[in-house]
Specification:
By secondary structure, the protein is mainly alpha-helical. The chain has ten helices and four strands, in the order H-H-H-H-H-H-H-H-E-E-H-E-E-H. It has three domains: about 15-60; about 75-130, no CATH class; about 160-225, no CATH class.
Length: about 230
């Protein structure tokens, strides 16, 4: 057996070091790599990378790789928000195989560890999206407002702002497409979608799902307070 010296990588640039980390992860068929694994497949010693970037976790982040150990203290809301972003970027329910970097901040394994399986994680996500959010003091105050309309008083039942959970439900219901012109960011990159009141808030419309619709920025800004009724 012939012995060979292993390069230290000390003369390499930051980009070269990060590229070698990505190469090592790809060689292992993973979206991350531990220091021990890099010591086996890397061109140099992991301590070189550790010293250069201050920590292995920081180096993984800069390389676009996932943490080599689960983040401590991840809340369910963080996990659900990640599913929401992934769902919106795909325009459909994410598959287990799609829960990975760079599109997902967390691996499918993170969801399995927390909820038991990816299917159960999706069930919990749907329950979270459909749940009513707690209202703050300002929202409580809005609920008790009365507005004058055509010489009558109408009690506001909902606040004007559309919550992020409700916005996601409307976008999902409308297929992530403008209800007026049909344009969608899934087919036309750069399109901005809004969730807007059909009967405007200023004319007594409530923030309820049957009074909300998806509009692209162009159609929404051209609508103003005009509506069919």
């Amino acid at each position: 057996m012939k012995y060979r010296l292993k390069k230290t990588l000390r003369g390499m640039s930051n980009d070269e070091l990060l590229d070698d980390m990505r190469r090592g992860a790809a060689l292992l068929g993973k979206h991350t790599i531990t220091m021990a694994e890099y010591a086996e497949v890397g061109k140099g010693h992991p301590s070189t990378i550790y010293r250069r970037f201050g920590s292995w976790i920081k180096a993984l982040e800069l390389a676009g790789l996932q943490p080599s150990r689960p983040k401590i203290g991840i809340s369910n809301q963080e996990l659900f928000e990640n599913i929401k972003r992934l769902w919106m970027s795909l325009g459909r329910q994410p598959l287990y195989s799609e829960v990975k970097a760079p599109d997902s901040c967390y691996s499918a394994g993170t969801y399995e560890n927390r909820f038991g399986s990816w299917s159960k994680a999706l069930e919990e996500f749907v329950a979270w999206v459909n749940s009513d959010e707690e209202m703050d003091d300002e929202s409580d105050q809005e609920l008790t407002e009365y507005v004058s309309q055509a010489s009558t008083s109408k009690r506001r039942r909902t606040k004007r702002e559309v919550s992020e959970r409700m916005r996601f439900r409307i976008l999902l219901r409308d297929g992530f497409s403008c209800k007026s012109c049909g344009v969608s960011p899934l087919k036309t990159p750069g399109v901005e979608l809004h969730v807007d009141h059909i009967v405007p808030w200023s004319k007594g419309g409530e923030t309820l799902e049957d009074n909300l619709q998806t509009k692209c920025a162009r159609c929404n800004l051209g609508k103003g307070n005009a509506f069919n009724g």
